[in-house]
Design brief:
Shape: globular
Bound molecules: pyridoxal-5'-phosphate
CATH topology of the largest domain: Aspartate Aminotransferase, domain 2
Strand order of the largest sheet: 1-8-7-6-4-2-3
Largest sheet: 7 strands, mixed
Structural class: alpha+beta
CATH architecture of the largest domain: 3-Layer(aba) Sandwich
Number of domains: 3
């Protein structure tokens, strides 16, 4: 069936009809359209939502082997997004990443992976057994320019190793996007497939002021979260193929049927279907209005303590970035002194009911979406209020750091001794991190935000990483992969055979 012949919301519409009919359930789910659902939840959610929490009932389609409405909905999504094939995902972009690493590379084959990737990539490597070659970022760029790529280095690594797959993240958390067309060209010259983690760029297709979507720029496979910037429920995502290999597409089919639940809730699938329909119909106009408003407002948001950062061309070029998402706003503290913006973030949440995307050492990030385009006047008023509030809080001393420390984030290049998979299956012991320097890590340590791995399982822990952990722990960042007990921090390391 052609996309033009497929109705809007094919899956969501079918489910609506199904649910409207009176039925007696002698089948799963246990709550039977909400009748047996917890009263507490019925009182706060209402009963209706449960009636759609069904899966693969008679008449409806099967996610792993779609033949009817799910197939139509996926075909429609592919056509909207410019893909040859699209799969609906119910365990986020994470499961798409795992499926790609399982499908496109065999155990022992090499994959070029950006060091500053999402942890789902490293977990995917444990699962797939592919051997990572790590691509280091360009040094000395600001934190918000993470995920930068040295194109020459990519070429050198592709010449040096027989690499089957290259995996990069674009855009990064801050909406800053790599030169995917150039990277795709190089990958294809060396017979490597390119997979782009575009978890934060699902909306890029819907206005030409956004960076070019990775699939249109030449990537072979792309994953996008529906919940991060569009209206999908949490856990929903899309995986796209450019259609360059039926063989690999079939492997992806098989991997996804292995990794995804056999009971995907229709709530997830309906939300993907309906959210795509809505943004397809209204996105261009709504994003256009929002971007236009933000273009004029950005400079008015500067105050005496914080300035709005428009990533400078020099930094973009140095990191092989080409553009950025105008719906992200980075507020950077003007004084170069150390500040504690985690404290400011907490104060915004607790005293003003303002939740922001992230606070880092010297900057904060706000993410705007279609929701903010619904009432532009309100969005504008709220952003001005936000700017005034952070200035006021900072002037009152919230986030002020009395004792400056001498922390310099000079990451040393780590030495990789084991693959993440070998590290995962090796015997391990827990050690205080003060004694862990030069040991091989069994843990993946990620500092949130933005959450890319500081220490990868299988690498030798260096002093710079330990220093960063102490520093960021002291400032209140969330650190995963570290255990805290009686004021000491612990990390799992590989038990190495003792040499005499
Ligand atoms: C760059 C990146 N990739 C992948 C993911 C995983 O996405 P999901 O939460 O949809 O599984 C995230 C989540 O934060 C991310 O930031």
């Amino acid at each position: 069936m052609k996309e033009s012949q497929i109705s809007k919301n094919p899956f969501a519409s079918e489910l609506r009809e199904y649910v409207q009919e009176e039925k007696t359930f002698y089948c799963m789910p246990g709550h039977k359209q909400g009748v047996g659902a917890p009263t507490f939840l019925k009182n706060i959610w209402g009963e209706k939502v449960f009636s759609y929490d069904i899966t693969e009932v008679n008449r409806s389609d099967v996610l792993a082997y779609p033949k009817k409405e799910i197939l139509h909905a996926q075909k429609r999504a592919a056509s909207i997004m410019g893909a040859a094939r699209t799969w609906f995902l119910v365990n986020g972009s994470s499961v798409g990443i795992h499926a790609i690493l399982g499908a496109l590379v065999k155990p022992g084959e090499k994959v070029l992976v950006h060091r500053e990737c999402h942890k789902a990539v490293l977990m995917g490597l444990v699962f797939s057994g592919a051997v990572p070659i790590y691509l280091e970022p360009v040094p000395n760029l600001p934190e918000w320019a993470y995920g930068s790529v040295d194109i020459q280095k990519v070429e050198e690594l592709l010449v040096k190793h027989e690499i089957k797959l290259v995996l990069v993240t674009s855009p990064n958390y801050y909406g800053i996007s790599l030169d995917i067309s150039r990277i795709a060209e190089i990958c294809h010259e060396h017979d490597a497939l390119l997979f782009v983690d575009e978890a934060h760029g699902t909306h890029f297709s819907f206005h030409d002021r956004f960076p070019t979507q990775a699939l249109r720029a030449g990537a072979d496979y792309v994953v996008q979260s529906m919940h991060k910037t569009l209206g999908g429920l949490y856990q929903t995502a899309l995986l796209h193929s450019a259609g360059n290999s039926d063989f690999f597409d079939e492997r992806v089919d098989n991997m996804l049927s292995m990794l995804q639940s056999t009971s995907p809730s229709a709530l997830f699938l309906m939300s993907i279907d309906a959210a795509l329909t809505e943004v397809h119909e209204k996105g261009e106009e709504l994003y256009g209005n929002l971007i236009e408003m933000l273009d004029t407002l950005r400079s008015q948001l500067n105050n005496s303590k914080f300035g709005v950062v428009d990533p400078p061309d020099g930094i973009l070029a140095a990191g092989n970035f080409v553009s950025y998402d105008p719906c992200k706003i980075i507020f950077r503290s003007i004084s170069m002194d150390e500040v504690n913006l985690i404290e400011l973030k907490d104060a915004l949440s607790e005293s003003y009911g303002i939740e922001i995307e992230l606070a880092e050492d010297d900057h904060m990030l706000l993410t705007l979406s279609l929701a903010d385009a619904m009432d532009l006047e309100k969005t504008k008023k709220n952003l001005i209020r936000f700017s005034d509030t952070i200035e006021k809080l900072f002037t009152e001393g919230v986030g002020y750091v009395e004792e400056q420390d001498d922390f310099v984030d000079h990451r040393e290049l780590p030495i990789f001794e084991l693959t993440p998979r070998d590290a995962f299956y090796s015997p391990k012991v827990r050690k205080p991190i003060s004694e862990a320097v030069h040991e091989i890590s069994a843990s993946m340590v990620c500092i949130y935000p933005p959450g890319y791995p500081l220490i990868i399982p299988g690498e030798r822990i260096n002093e710079a990483a330990i220093h960063t952990i102490y520093h960021d722990h002291g400032k209140g960042f969330t650190i995963i992969g570290i255990t805290e007990d009686a004021d000491e921090l612990y990390i799992d390391i590989i038990e190495e055979p003792q040499t005499k």
